[in-house]
C-alpha cells in the first residue's frame, strides 16, 4: 500500500522533464497563490520546510507535501495526473510545455490505512 501513484501521462511527462532538467522533485503546498497544485522543480530548486512530508516518489523523484496540507489529507491517496493548460502556480517546470500537473484524491478505506508505511518528514 502506498500514498502516491501517477498516471501513465504524468509519468511520461516526468521522464521528459528529467531528460531536460536532470533530477527533479515535487512540492504540493496549501497556500493561497498556488492553491494545492503540485509543483515540479529541479532537485534542490525548492527546499521543503521543517516537518513537511514526503509521501512517495514519481519515477524515482520525491513528492513532498506541506506539513499542514498533509494533516488535512493524511487519510487520502494521491494520484498525480497532468492536463493541458496553464495552472494556477506557473513556476512548475511543465508550464512552458502548456501542461499542468494536478492531483486526484480518494479517501483510504480503513483496512488500507492500517497497511500504510510511515511517511518521511523533513527534519533537519
Characteristic terms for this protein:
single chain, 124 residues, three-stranded mixed sheet, 20% helix, globular, alpha/beta, Hypothetical Protein Aq_1857, Chain: A
Mean pLDDT over the full residue set:
92
> What is the N-to-C succession of helices and strands?
EHEEEEHEEHE
Q: If classified by CATH, what would the architecture be?
A: Sandwich
CATH superfamily: HesB-like domain
User: What is Rg?
Assistant: 14 Å
Separate helix tally: 3
| CATH hierarchy class name | Mainly Beta
Q: Return residue spans where pLDDT drops below 50 for at least 5 consecutive residues.
A: none
Question: Strand share of the residues?
Answer: 35-45%
CATH topology: Hypothetical Protein Aq_1857, Chain: A
Organism: Parapedobacter luteus
Pfam family, one: DUF779
Protein name: UDP-glucose 4-epimerase
Secondary structure layout:
Layout: E1 4-6, H1 8-21, E2 24-28, E3 38-42, E4 53-58, E5 61-65, H2 67-73, E6 76-84, E7 99-107, H3 110-113, E8 120-121
Parallel strand pairs: 1-6, 2-5
Antiparallel strand pairs: 2-3, 4-5, 4-8, 6-7
Q: Would you write up a description of this structure?
A:
- The chain is an alpha/beta fold and 124 residues long.
- It has a single domain (4-116), classed as Hypothetical Protein Aq_1857, Chain: A, CATH 2.60.300.12.
- The protein has three helices and eight strands, in the order E-H-E-E-E-E-H-E-E-H-E.
- The protein has a five-stranded mixed β-sheet.
- Strand 4 (53-58) and strand 5 (61-65) form a beta hairpin.
- It is globular and about 40 Å long.
- The two termini are 27 Å apart.
- The mean pLDDT is 92.
